Amino acid sequence: MRRVSLFYYHPTSVLRLDAELTCVSRGKYAEYSHQINEDDPRDVEMIRACDECRIAVVRKRVHDPETKTVRVVTSIWVFSDDNTIRMELRMDDTQMYIPYSSYFSQTKVSITVPCELKFHDVKLGNRLAKLAKTSWVNYVFDAPQGTPHTLTRLMFIFISNPSF
After folding, report:
1. DSSP H or E run through 150
2. Which residue from 41, 79, 96, 100 has the highest number of Cβ atoms inside 10 Å of its Cβ?
C-alpha cells in the first residue's frame, strides 16, 4: 500500500489529505442499477456511469468535529478518462460488503448492497453533480488481472477493519 495525495494523482480530485490509495486499475466501464418502477422491484435497468476509466480503492481518514474522533472510510472511486465523471461509492460501516467476480465475465466485479453513488463535480469545491441510490454496482476492468487485485484489496480491508 502506498500513501499518496490523490490531488497529485488526479488534479481535480476532492480527495487530497489523509488518503491512502490501496489499488488503481484500468476499467472498461462502471454501471449501476436503477429502479424504473417503484412498485415493481424487478423493473430495473442498468445505467452506464462512464466508459474507459480508472477504478481506485481509497481509504481516507475522516475527522468528526463534534465527537473529535477519527475514523477510516473506504471508498471505491471511478475517474473517467475524459475527466467528466468522478463517481464515489463510500462504504457504510453498518453494511457487509462482499464483492464478487462474475462467473460469465471474469473482468467484472459486482457489489450488491443498497448504497448511494455520489457523482462529484469536476471543479473542486462545487456541490455534488448527482446522487444515485442503487442496490447493484458493476465495475468492469480492461484486463482480468485487475479483477483479483481489486477483490483482494477490498477483502483485506474488510477483514482487517473490525467495524465491517
Report:
1. helix 146-160
2. 79
**Cα–Cα distance between 17 and 43 in angstroms, integer?**
41
CB 75 within 8 A of CB 45: no
Cell 442503487 belongs to which residue? 134
Inside any domain, residue 99: yes
78-89 confidence digits (pLDDT tens): 999 998 999 999
Provide the total of helices (H) and of strands (E) in the chain, helices listed first: 2, 9
Please tell me the pTM assigned to this model: 0.79
Asked whether residue 43 is domain-assigned, the answer is yes
Q: What is the amino acid identity at position 21?
A: L
Would you say residue 1 lies in a domain? no
C-alpha cell at 101: 467476480
**CATH at 33:** 2.30.29.30
Cell of 32: 449501476
**Number of domains composing the chain:** 1
Q: Are strands 19-35 and 69-80 parallel, antiparallel or unpaired?
A: unpaired
Tens of pLDDT, residues 108-155: 888 888 999 999 988 877 888 899 999 999 999 887 666 666 666 666
Residue 34 belongs to domain spanning: 6-160
The C-alpha cell that represents 113 in the structure block: 448492497
